């Protein structure tokens, strides 16, 4: 009965996680939105899911009576990390350097995907024995594994990203990922206690509370980064200078603009093909010295963080 209950609970958790992941995939389907997400953040979650999958498979091999219950959990976790999260990682990688993938075509995409899988499984092969040898420090390893939002927090500060995740994904994944450790740490007489025997098993409420607190801290920081600003915790004197899209026309561009006016033409925004009013300075200039209407460029950057003219990567506003 305990195995069946655990299997049903964990299967439901996996289904919810897949739903949250698909919601996030839809939320960040544009190149600009995907580029805001940390690869390390998603990769760490992928490794965590893979470890959970391998752990359940090992228990299936050691205790055949639990095969049916644990194999289904391993199957769902396999789908999550091997298909859904891997697809998301590839999408994020593609969004970081779209021009490279565009020039390389389908063959480059296949090579990158194969290399990604090779690196992931190599890391997984190294991680599993490492966890086994450091089993005496399992609580510390669990806290490290459940620090998967930290890379995104750092990424938000570096790139000044405000909202990389859909709220449903952020809060949903944070809650569902806590189910297994809280069950093992805080539920008396859980399935792990049965496997280990009552003499070797014990409840660790302190560790359960520490996990909840640590996850809550990470989610809280991400929430504050969205509401207040991604660098709210960094003193102003340590912040790097931001690029000014409203800067004056550089000499070369000003001369080109003057020549255009003298020839009886007008300076146009290449996005909407409408005239740019230089007198009111109603324009934005990219680092590559291309000029656009503010509204046009802002809408463009919601989809792609690259110059519409030369594909130069654009800094965050």
Overview of this protein structure:
One of its GO terms (cellular component) is endomembrane system. The protein has 317 residues and is mostly helical. The chain folds into two domains: 1-237, no CATH class; 241-316, 2-Layer Sandwich (Herpes Virus-1). The chain has 13 helices and two strands; from the N terminus they run ααααααααααααββα. The chain has a two-stranded antiparallel sheet. α3 crosses α5 (98-133), α4 (67-96) packs antiparallel against α5 and α9 (179-186) runs antiparallel to α11 (205-227). It is elongated, with a radius of gyration of 25 Å. The mean pLDDT is 84.
What structural keywords apply?
317 residues; mainly alpha; 2 strands; two-stranded antiparallel ribbon; Herpes Virus-1; elongated
Rg over C-alpha atoms, rounded to the nearest angstrom: 25 Å
Main β sheet profile: 2 strands, antiparallel
Helical coverage, percent range = 55-70%
Mean of residue pLDDT values: 84
Pathway: Protein modification; protein ubiquitination
Main location: membrane
Catalytic activity: S-ubiquitinyl-[E2 ubiquitin-conjugating enzyme]-L-cysteine + [acceptor protein]-L-lysine = [E2 ubiquitin-conjugating enzyme]-L-cysteine + N(6)-ubiquitinyl-[acceptor protein]-L-lysine
Domain RING-type: 269-311
């Amino acid at each position: 009965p305990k195995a069946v209950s655990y299997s049903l609970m964990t299967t439901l958790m996996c289904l919810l996680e897949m739903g949250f992941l698909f919601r996030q995939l839809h939320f960040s389907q544009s190149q600009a939105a995907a580029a805001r997400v940390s690869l390390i953040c998603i990769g760490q979650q992928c490794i965590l899911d893979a470890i959970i999958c391998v752990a359940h498979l090992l228990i299936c091999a050691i205790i055949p009576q639990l095969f049916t219950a644990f194999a289904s959990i391993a199957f769902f976790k396999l789908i999550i990390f091997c298909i859904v999260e891997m697809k998301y990682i590839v999408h994020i990688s593609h969004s970081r350097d779209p021009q490279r993938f565009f020039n390389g075509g389908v063959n480059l995409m296949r090579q990158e995907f194969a290399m990604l899988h090779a690196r992931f499984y190599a890391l997984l092969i190294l991680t599993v024995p490492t966890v086994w040898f450091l089993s005496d420090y399992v609580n510390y390893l669990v806290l490290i594994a459940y620090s998967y939002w930290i890379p995104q927090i750092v990424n938000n500060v570096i790139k000044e990203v405000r909202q990389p995740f859909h709220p449903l994904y952020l809060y949903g994944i944070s809650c569902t990922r806590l189910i297994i450790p809280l069950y093992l740490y805080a539920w008396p007489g859980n399935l792990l206690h049965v496997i280990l025997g009552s003499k070797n098993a014990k409840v660790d409420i302190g560790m359960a509370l520490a996990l909840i607190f640590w996850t809550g801290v990470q989610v809280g920081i991400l929430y504050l980064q969205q509401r207040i600003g991604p660098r709210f915790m960094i003193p102003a004197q340590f912040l790097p200078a931001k690029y000014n899209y409203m800067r004056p026309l550089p000499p070369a561009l000003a001369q080109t603009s003057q020549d255009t006016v003298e020839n009886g033409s007008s300076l146009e925004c290449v996005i909407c093909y409408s005239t740019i009013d230089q007198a009111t300075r109603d324009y934005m200039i990219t680092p590559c010295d291309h000029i656009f209407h503010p509204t046009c460029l802002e809408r463009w950057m919601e989809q792609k963080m690259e110059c519409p003219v030369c594909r130069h990567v654009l800094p965050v506003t």
